[in-house]
Amino acid sequence: MKHFTLSLLLLVLVSSCSKNGDAVQPSLPESMYFPSNSSSTWETKSLSSLGWNQAAVQPLKDFLIQKHTKSFIILVNGRIVMEEYFNGQTATGTWEWNSAGKTLVASITGIAQQEGLLNISSKVSDYLGTEWTSMPLSKENLITVRHLLTMTSGNDDTKQYVVKQNLTYVADAGTRWAYSNIFQKLTNVVANASNKSFETYFNEKIKNRIGMDGFWNFGTIFTIYHSTARSMARFGLLALNNGKWGNEQIINESYFKESIAPSQSINSSYGYLWWLNGKSSFMIPGEQTVYQGYLVPNAPADMYAAMGANDQRIYVIPSKKMVVVRMGDASDPVNPNFAVSGFDNALWEKINAIVK
Q: What is the pLDDT of residue 29?
C-alpha cells in the first residue's frame, strides 16, 4: 500500500510539471560569474537572451560617441552583455579613473582595518603624526580616518593642492560636507599603517586578487588610477557582490555595506567615497547647496556609483545584478565636471530604452 501511495504521488508531481505532454523544468536563477584572474576569457550573454530592446542599442552607441566616450561595458551577473570601444580606444588601452578611483582608496582602507592595521574611528594624526595640516592642533585632532572617507574633515575645499599649507580650518570635523582632495591623505594613512607603499599594499590586497591591471599616478593635486575598462568592470563586479570575489571575501561585507550607505547626515547621497542614488537629497562638489530629489533620477534607486572627473563612471545596480562602466573624455568639454553631471541622467535615459 505504501508503495502504491508513493507511486501515485510521483505521478501527480510529474503530471503537474507537464504542459502539452512535455516536462517543464523550473527555471533556476543564473549564477554569478567571475572572470578568471589568469585568462583574458570573459563569458558573454546576448541582449536577446535577456529580452532587451536591440533597436535601442544604436541610439545608445551614437550618444556615447557624441559624448566623447572611449570605453563602455555592461555586465549582468558578471557576464558581458555590451562591450564597445570608440575614438581610437581598444580593449587593451588604459585610461584614468579620476575620482572614480576614490572608491579603490575607500576599499583598501577597509581592508587595512579588517587586518587590524588601523581603525577608521581613530585620529588621522595617529598614523601621520601631529601637524599634518595647518589647522590649530585642537581642530586637527578632531579629524578621524572616517572624516576623510566621508568628506567631512572641515578643511578648506577651495584649495586643490594637497600640501600642508593648504589644509586649513573652515569647520569642525563632522559638521560640514565638502568635496575635497584631502581624501588623498588616506593613501599615506594606509601606507604608514601597513608599513608598505600604498601601491604595493593595494596590489597585494585588491588588484592581484581580482585580476585587475593598472597603476597609480601620485600627485599633489590628484592621485589617479589608470587601467583598462575591463579592470574597472572587475572592480564593479567586486562591488556588486559586497566585496566578495568568487568564494573569497576580499573586503569585509559589513564595512562595504557601510561604504554604500549614507555616511553622515549632511549629504545623504554620499557614503565612503561612493555616490548613492535613491536618497531624498544630494550635494555636489564645489557647493554647499542641498538639492532635493535623487542624484540621478533616471537611474535605478538602488544604484551606487564611482564617479570621476570627465565622466569616468562605474554604476552598480544590485536589483538588476548589473554593472555599467564608462570611460572617456568629458561629455561636455566646455563645462567639464568633477563628479556628478547631467551626463548621468542622459545616459540612463538611453540605457533604460534597452534594459527590460
A: 79
